[in-house]
């Protein structure tokens, strides 16, 4: 790498793809006069693949755009970037060329180069270069040698993926120019490496034995770290320790991201902070701590956002350090110029490189300026060494002692905080194991001995203990910064109405008036269900807990700023909170009444968790309270799309299938995967290798169905298994896998066995029809066919399937779980589903995710399979089965209503009574008495 591009950080992964299309950009021309490296960057066309999943075979169909620059700035992202260009040999001699990506920190790059027909491609993949480095202390860049025959051209594609943002270029070398470049690189970097080793040795010896001033040692440490940072940028440090590219890139990151740490320490020692505003030093300590945290997270979880955060921290901290230095000069404060002048030069150099890397300032001369400052930093410091020798004995020992004390105190506080966080995380995880081993046998005992009244009591309190432990785990996740936000677009009023309605039975049982209201009938916003559930449930549970009989609890939701912000207000007429206690209620483990004979139980975790979850959701919470009058909590949360860009999950529709344990304030929600996730119920899969046939069939059904297409049986199986369509229309004769094999595979798989299949064929003979029908095809259609004929075929199959759905739906309600005879794959599936629910009958936490896991299916496959067979969601299936089992036990008088409710997985008796009456039109007690 040239000296004027020492710190150029580029990661450009070029991925080559099949393309016979003419390129919009002019080709790179190679002639007999081409002796020096040819800069190919300006000839590139570029495509940003935000999904990072476009396959090689499809990339040539995408719309590339000219790069328009002689360099490429690769952003910090998970996206893939594709580039392409053509190269043409206008000479009469065969050319042996090498394509070289000029940046040694590239993490993943795939070269694809066509033959002269542009139809076939040679693929070479690179990761960060480690074991293939020619010289361990010299940077190595990805190279791809190829030959170009006279008067021919080739197309080159490349795919680049890198967590780290990079600045780079692409060059085409002849053998001579490549050799010359390597020789130049060896000379330049050999000189620089020698100088850096000499400097490190010099300052290490001086700092250890001659100059004992803390500021000199801090500067020495900073200089050593900067040397490591340089080698990290050159991809030298990582490969010195390991041949594993994934570990090497983390070592490189650790090196080049550590500059703010030593820079902060140095500026604290070099400037007169006792005469500067106090907040200056606090900001610097913040930068040091932030650098440590970002570095740790970047090494543990090597993702682009940690790397980008590190770059922003380098730029922001460098600007602040420069500001403090200039402020000190203006105020004529001591600045220790022997250290700060070279330090500021080096810091500015590093900052300019990163400003360029972020794309904030795109001026090519920045690299030359940065390189010059880097050289001057080292030369000026050597010049100042004589003065440093002379002034060594004048160092301020008081400053040394003070710094040592501050560092020791910070280390102790950090250690205590880490110990506390680790303790809570470890103890919570450790407690879950024995509680799980207690909870499982207890559930078995409750089912085995339904008349034993003590067992349900033990079960409820064990589950309550598990809830408390889960809260502790949430607290530890928040402290560790592992609580991520995942929002989805929802009807917020419907969500709020459904959630709050779960408290109705609790209000009735305690004789408390419960009032709810919505400002609008339908408001769509972006919310995180899991976290908002915990917030509202905690607040409502507290409200009912502290409100006496005859009191009132209210829950309202309103909106501000054109529905960009939701205001949730929860009030009660309970015992209230004293004014001197209000500012402490969100502190962890704080209890308003902490006396031994307090009236209300609690751990002091709930409100602390609420406050921290509100902060995670970028909101705010306020509380107003008057003793013996009541308390009001008001939460403001952003629900607009702009606030949550980058954190939005698949949008979901609302359901009313919430199960609430009112006695304990715990909510069991159906998985969002059990909703439709925006999917259309009517899915039609067309499998035919003829695109015109697919287009024609699509035109017939596109008004009534969401259409999926596949060009052969193999692709059809993949799409059918993934999406579970309602109907499949398949051709018989197809490449890779014909219709017979396609039908056989689907009909023998329990995930897809229920799907009606219509076979299309030009074969009108009876043998072909019989073979298709024997393999499970539901109908046969001979080409050519007309629109009315295929419409009738599909309509009849859907009608038959609807009849089966009614039969299976009726079977689930009326037949006992152990009285089903297996005579088909679909009946076997229903039997298996019932067996899984039966095995988890008493487990109140059994949800769609667990159901799908036990069935060895994805949640989408399970949902659509159940919907197709029974016209019920997974939650409805589980609930109806439990109610059916409860009805059977009630008829047998196998225990009290309460015992039976717990046996079939209902933790709230009031909720069980409510849903049982909705299902059977009588209460459980009345059902038992009939």
Automatic annotation (TrEMBL):
Q: Which PROSITE patterns match?
A: HIS_KIN, HTH_ARAC_FAMILY_1, HTH_ARAC_FAMILY_2, RESPONSE_REGULATORY
Q: Which Gene3D superfamilies match?
A: 1.10.287.130, 2.60.40.2380, 3.40.50.2300, Histidine kinase-like ATPase, C-terminal domain (3.30.565.10), Homeodomain-like (1.10.10.60)
Q: Which residues carry this modification: 4-aspartylphosphate?
A: 731
Q: Which Pfam families match?
A: 7TMR-DISMED2, HATPase_c, HisKA, HTH_18, Response_reg
* SMART domains referenced in this protein's UniProt entry, alphabetically: HATPase_c (SM00387), HisKA (SM00388), HTH_ARAC (SM00342), REC (SM00448)
User: Which transformation does this protein catalyse, written as a reaction?
Assistant: ATP + protein L-histidine = ADP + protein N-phospho-L-histidine
Q: Might you give the EC number(s) for this enzyme?
A: 2.7.13.3
Task: Indicate the segments forming the HTH araC/xylS-type domain, all copies.
Answer: 831-930
Name-wise, this protein is histidine kinase
Entry keyword set: DNA-binding, Membrane, Phosphoprotein, Transcription, Transcription regulation, Transmembrane, Transmembrane helix
- Residues annotated as domain Histidine kinase: 426-641
Question: Membrane-crossing residues?
Answer: 196-216, 223-241, 253-271, 283-300, 306-326, 338-359, 365-386
Q: Which organism is it from?
A: Emticicia soli
- Per its UniProt record, what PANTHER family does this chain match? HYBRID SIGNAL TRANSDUCTION HISTIDINE KINASE C (PTHR43547:SF2), TWO-COMPONENT HISTIDINE KINASE (PTHR43547)
Looking at the record, the residues that make up the Response regulatory domain are 683-798
Species classification = Bacteria, Pseudomonadati, Bacteroidota, Cytophagia, Cytophagales
């Amino acid at each position: 790498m040239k000296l004027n591009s020492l710190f150029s950080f580029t990661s450009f992964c070029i991925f080559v793809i099949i393309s016979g299309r003419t390129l919009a950009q002019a080709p790179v021309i190679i002639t007999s006069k081409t002796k020096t490296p040819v800069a190919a960057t300006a000839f590139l066309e570029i495509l940003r693949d935000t999904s990072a999943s476009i396959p090689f075979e499809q990339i040539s169909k995408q719309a590339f755009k000219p790069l328009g620059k002689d360099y490429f700035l690769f952003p910090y992202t998970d996206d893939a970037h594709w580039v392409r260009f053509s190269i043409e040999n206008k000479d009469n001699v065969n050319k042996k060329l090498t394509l070289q990506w000029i940046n040694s920190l590239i993490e993943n790059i795939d070269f694809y180069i066509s033959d002269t027909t542009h139809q076939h491609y040679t693929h070479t993949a690179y990761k960060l270069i480690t074991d293939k480095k020619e010289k361990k202390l010299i940077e190595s860049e990805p190279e791809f040698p190829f030959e170009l025959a006279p008067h021919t051209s080739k197309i080159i594609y490349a795919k680049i993926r890198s967590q780290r943002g990079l600045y780079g270029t692409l060059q085409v070398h002849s053998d001579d120019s490549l050799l010359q470049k390597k020789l130049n690189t060896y000379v330049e970097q050999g000189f620089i490496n020698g100088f850096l080793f000499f400097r490190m040795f010099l300052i290490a010896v001086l700092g250890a034995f001659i100059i004992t001033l803390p500021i000199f040692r801090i500067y020495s440490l900073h200089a050593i770290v900067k040397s490591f940072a340089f080698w990290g940028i050159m991809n030298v440090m990582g490969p010195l320790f390991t041949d594993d590219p994934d570990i090497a890139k983390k070592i490189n990151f650790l090196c080049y991201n550590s500059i703010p740490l030593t820079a902060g320490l140095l500026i604290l020692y070099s400037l007169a902070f006792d005469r500067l505003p106090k907040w200056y030093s606090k900001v610097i300590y913040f930068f040091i701590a932030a650098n440590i945290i970002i570095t740790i997270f970047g090494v543990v979880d090597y993702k682009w956002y940690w790397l980008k955060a590190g770059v922003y921290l380098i730029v922001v901290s460098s600007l602040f350090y420069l500001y403090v230095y200039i402020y000190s000069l203006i105020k004529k404060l001591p600045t220790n110029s022997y250290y700060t002048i070279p330090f500021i030069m080096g810091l500015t150099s590093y900052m300019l490189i990163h400003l360029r890397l972020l794309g904030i300032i795109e001026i090519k001369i920045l690299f030359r300026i940065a390189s010059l400052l880097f050289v001057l930093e080292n030369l000026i410091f050597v010049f100042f060494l004589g003065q440093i020798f002379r002034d060594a004995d004048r160092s301020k020992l008081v400053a040394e002692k003070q710094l040592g004390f501050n560092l020791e105190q910070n280390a102790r506080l950090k250690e205590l905080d880490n110990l506390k966080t680790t303790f809570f995380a470890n103890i919570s995880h450790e407690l879950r194991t024995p509680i799980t081993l207690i909870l499982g046998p207890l559930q078995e005992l409750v089912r085995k001995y339904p008349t034993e009244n003590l067992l349900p009591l033990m079960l409820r309190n064990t589950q309550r203990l598990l809830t408390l432990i889960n809260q502790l785990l949430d607290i530890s996740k928040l402290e560790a910064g592992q609580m991520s936000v995942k929002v989805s677009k929802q009807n917020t009023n419907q969500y709020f109405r459904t959630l709050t309605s779960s408290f109705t039975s609790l209000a009735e049982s305690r004789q408390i008036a419960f009032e709810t209201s919505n400002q609008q009938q339908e408001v769509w916003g972006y919310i995180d269900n899991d976290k908002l559930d915990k917030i509202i449930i905690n607040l409502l549970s507290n409200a009912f807990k502290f409100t006496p009989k005859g009191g009132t609890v209210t829950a309202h939701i309103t909106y501000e700023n054109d529905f960009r912000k939701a205001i949730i207000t929860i009030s009660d007429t309970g015992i209230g909170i004293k004014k001197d206690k209000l500012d402490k209620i969100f502190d962890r483990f704080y209890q308003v009444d902490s006396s031994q004979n307090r009236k209300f139980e609690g751990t002091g975790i709930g409100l602390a968790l609420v406050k921290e979850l509100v902060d995670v959701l970028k909101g705010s919470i306020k509380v107003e309270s008057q003793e013996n009058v009541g308390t009001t909590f008001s939460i403001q949360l952003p629900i607009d799309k702009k606030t949550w860009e980058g954190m939005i999950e698949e949008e979901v529709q609302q359901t009313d299938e919430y199960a609430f344990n009112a006695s304990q304030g715990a909510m069991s929600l159906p998985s969002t995967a059990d909703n439709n996730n925006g999917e259309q119920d009517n899915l039609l899969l067309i499998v035919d290798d003829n695109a015109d046939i697919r287009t024609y069939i699509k035109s017939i059904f596109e008004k009534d169905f969401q259409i999926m297409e596949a060009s052969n049986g193999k692709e059809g199986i993949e799409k059918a298994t993934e999406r579970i369509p309602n109907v499949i229309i398949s051709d018989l004769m197809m490449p890779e896998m014909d219709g017979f094999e396609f039908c056989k595979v689907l009909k023998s798989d329990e995930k897809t066995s229920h799907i009606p299949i219509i076979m299309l064929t030009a074969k009108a003979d009876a043998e072909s029809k019989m073979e298709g029908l024997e393999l499970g095809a539901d109908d046969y259609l001979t080409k050519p066919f007309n629109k009315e004929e295929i419409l009738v075929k599909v309509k009849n199959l859907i009608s038959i399937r609807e009849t089966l759905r009614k039969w299976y739906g009726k079977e689930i309600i009326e037949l006992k779980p152990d009285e089903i005879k297996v005579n088909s794959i679909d009946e076997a599936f229903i039997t298996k589903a019932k067996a899984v629910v039966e095995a988890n009958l008493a487990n109140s936490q059994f949800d769609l995710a667990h159901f799908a896991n036990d069935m060895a299916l994805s949640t989408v496959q399970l949902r659509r399979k159940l919907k197709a067979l029974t016209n019920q969601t997974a939650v409805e299936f589980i609930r109806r089965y439990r109610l059916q089992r409860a009805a059977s036990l009630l008829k047998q008088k196998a225990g009290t209503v309460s015992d039976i409710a717990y046996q079939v997985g209902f933790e709230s008796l009031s909720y069980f009574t409510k849903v049982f009456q909705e299902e059977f039109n009588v209460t459980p007690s009345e059902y038992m008495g009939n």
